[in-house]
Amino acid sequence: MSIFEIFGFALRGVSANKLRSGLTVLGILIGVAAVILLVAVGNGSAKQVEDSLAALGTNTLTVQGGRGGDTGYRTDLTLDIVKALQDRESAPDVKSVSPVVNSAQTLTFGDASYDVNAVIGTYPSYFAASNSVIASGSGFTEEDVDQAARVVVLGPTTAEELFGTTVDPVGQRIGIAGQIYSVIGVLARKGSTGFNDPDDVAIAPLPAVQRSLTGYGPVSSITVEAVNADAVAAAKAEITAILNAKMHVADGASSTPYQIRDASQLLETRTATAETFTVLLGAVAGISLVVGGIGITNIMMVSVTERTREIGIRKALGAPRRVILSQFLIEATLLSLLGGGLGVAAALIGANFEIVGIKPVIMPDSVVLALGVCVAIGLFFGSYPASRAAGLRPIDALRYE
Amino acid sequence: MTAPYGREQRPVLEVVDLVKTYGEGETAVHALAGVSMTVAPGDYVAIMGSSGSGKSTLMNIVGCLDVPTSGTYRLDGVDVSELNESQLALVRNRRIGFVFQSFNLIARTSALANVELPLAYAGIKPAVRRERALAALDMVGLANRADHDPNQLSGGQQQRVAVARALVSQPALLLADEPTGNLDSRSTSDVLSILDGLNAQGRTIVLITHEDEVAAHAHRTIRLVDGVIVSDIRRRDITPVGAMA
């Protein structure tokens, strides 16, 4: 009795009850598609984080203050510190320094209003440092900063939310917390990182924002651009020295009242988060695969019970135990493989669409793994019903009603 | 109790003091309480008895579907009680052809495939198998129904397919458990004439029935009452085995 013939029996067994087999296959299909697709979504979000952070520029450093140090001196990030960092003598590897204040505000245009993620007040150098490209209109200049001009550059998301797609934002006047600002430019789209939208911003000259929105307190952070990617470490050291001197931090102090983060650090943490996210999604999807596997056991049990007489007939005709066992194992494997194959197909189709704003990136490993797990599930969850069928005594099986 | 078989041939079937007990202790039921009989090659035996007489139990043991509580059973000289499960499967496949009261064809499987099944389990090549299965179907007059599924056949036709399936592997012994129990009179005579024809060719047949008209076709009638043989009457001589096709 060749394996092909047993395969033929199994195929007939599967096709005998198409609806039931179909539903079982559906269970596995959902499981496999979920595993592949969710892992792909996690992977896609990790990739997006990577891409957007790389686009953000790997040669920028962000100084954040507000960590109340115990130096007894002022530890706020002030414009005085910004000036000190701009000193070419003590910080030769620093290309530009842009102080940043931000606050969440409501923008209004006519009757439309929109809660923007962040209104950023800064210097023109911020555009280059943050890899923000002006798509239409222009950015503001040093003069605008000096005059505290009420001009604003909008992120693409913000512009679209406020103006829709028909009105050209450039030249329009909008209200920010009751103050009138002129829109002079719109940024090019950077793309979402999946966690927050870097395109949802409004960037204006620092003094204007301070005067009308945040007050003349310390800035929230300082974005520093190094002269090139290789100079990031040197720039970081220079900034550290200047900040320590300004804030009177003792040499070798265990903690500093500020924090310097570079993009690669940010990249690492974000990527790690995204990986955890991927694993979590995969685990959840894995559970649904196991549930699908239990579905196979269930269906095979029903199938064995229902076909007890048939098994009895086959045994009476001299079917060896091995053949019965193989037949039911192949049936179970066939169901799971069919579900697996269709699941992969469904996942491949699904991966063409954006899911919660993330373009899924299929990991070949997850496809191989999901299919492998499928066969394993078929064999594992099919083995109990199959061995039960094979172990039936012919007379009991024949008498079964 | 042993019937004379008159030739220097080893019996196809020989049971000695066969006992089958269901349950234990006071509730035990003795389905067979010491049955001994011998069936020679070419014989045509009807086993009769009312329900509960143990005839089906005897048939199941003879067909290697069930094992006796005690006693020995030799099929073609081989002591079946010493065989393991896979050897028993082989015996069922090669030595015994079964015809059941309820036909027991496999559903959604063509008549031809049903008949081929024992040959498939015997490991015979598809081409040879098909040829032999068609020949067997031809023998029961159903060659033109080879592609029909069981549910497209009448009861009589289904039973004839079952007969074809039972004889396709050229078994030493053809067992029929109330083969006409579910059939109308015309189908009954169809099936019985096929069995008669097979016996005329020298095939050994043991059939169970509770109808005298059916038993009349056999050459020898054994009556069971409460698990013991009460009579064993031979009416005709054993068909010479030399006539086997």
From TrEMBL, chain A:
Highest taxon of the lineage: Bacteria
Q: Which residues form the MacB-like periplasmic core domain?
A: 21-242
Any idea where the ABC3 transporter permease C-terminal domain is?
283-392
> Which one of the record's GO molecular function terms can you name?
transmembrane transporter activity
**Residue ranges that the Swiss-Prot or TrEMBL entry lists as coiled coil:** none
Q: Which UniProt key words apply to this protein?
A: Cell membrane, Membrane, Transmembrane, Transmembrane helix
Instruction: Tell me how this protein sits in the membrane.
Output: Multi-pass membrane protein
Main localization (coarse): membrane
Segments passing through the bilayer: 21-42, 277-302, 323-349, 361-384
Cellular component GO terms, alphabetically?
A: plasma membrane
Q: Where in the cell is it found?
A: Cell membrane
Protein family according to the UniProt entry: Belongs to the ABC-4 integral membrane protein family.
**Name of this protein:** Peptide ABC transporter permease
State the organism named in the record. Answer: Catellatospora methionotrophica
Automatic annotation (TrEMBL), chain B:
- GO CC terms: membrane protein complex; plasma membrane
UniProt keyword terms in alphabetical order: ATP-binding, Nucleotide-binding, Transport
Q: Could you tell me which InterPro entries the record lists for this protein?
A: AAA+_ATPase, ABC_transporter-like_ATP-bd, ABC_transporter-like_CS, ABC_transpr_LolD-like, MacB-like_ATP-bd, P-loop_NTPase
Keyword Nucleotide-binding in the entry? The reply is: yes
Under the heading SUPFAM superfamilies, the entry gives:
P-loop containing nucleoside triphosphate hydrolases
Q: Say which domain of life the source belongs to.
A: Bacteria
Under CDD domains, the record lists: ABC_MJ0796_LolCDE_FtsE (cd03255)
- Please give the Pfam families that the UniProt record associates with this protein: ABC_tran
Q: Which SMART domains match?
A: AAA
- Ranges for domain ABC transporter come to 13-245
GO MF terms listed in the record are:
ATP binding; ATP hydrolysis activity; transmembrane transporter activity
Checking PROSITE patterns in the record gives: ABC_TRANSPORTER_1, ABC_TRANSPORTER_2
This protein's name: Macrolide ABC transporter ATP-binding protein
Which organism's genome codes for this protein?
A: Catellatospora methionotrophica
Q: What is the lineage of its organism?
A: Bacteria, Bacillati, Actinomycetota, Actinomycetes, Micromonosporales
